[in-house]
Amino acid sequence: MDQSVIHTLKTNYKRELIQKMVDGDTPNVISFLKEMTIRDAVNIIHSAWAAISKVSLRKCWEKGLPMPDSSLSDDEGEKSDFWGSTDKDIQDSARQKIADFLEVDEREVDHHLKMWVDEDANLPTAQEKTDEDTSQEALARGEPTPLRTETGEPPSSAPSTQQALKNLQVVLDFWTSQGKNLEAIQVETQMRKVREIQAKQQKQTELASSS
Length: 211
Prior knowledge:
This protein is mainly α. It has helices spanning 3-23, 29-35, 38-50, 54-59, 87-102, 109-117, 131-140, 161-177, 181-210.
């Protein structure tokens, strides 16, 4: 709806509201407003809307829905409250409302509008595939899915038993220096299992070389 018609409706509403308050028997404005109901407000809006001339309502569509000049004539004897808004009026009104909303000078409106328009300019137009997506596609093609570490990189080759024993020895020394006997015993148990694996591997190597 055109702002001029809205302004006229508000003016008529204020006039009807004041008239109702004057005609009433309430002692003051506060008492009058407390006694008002939603039905009273709707009735006042109805009266305010009815007070707007038909010619004014037709002419508010002049920009969006052009009509023959004859349809806008005052042959009904009614006085028009509105004669249409120009494109400049509409643009100026919009710019002023944006400036008021942003609490900036009207000259800065174009800058803010450009920021809004370009806000998504650098966003990616396609979503990058996750590891899960890649795995699902590989499964669908019947291909083995590559393992990934927590950092997303393919895992390196497994450490040797000698490397495992060396690292476990560091952990054992740490727990021993902290007086954590239970943790030290657990590490010793792990070292014993690694030595068993190491001995088994050596035996397999000897058998393979002898054959």
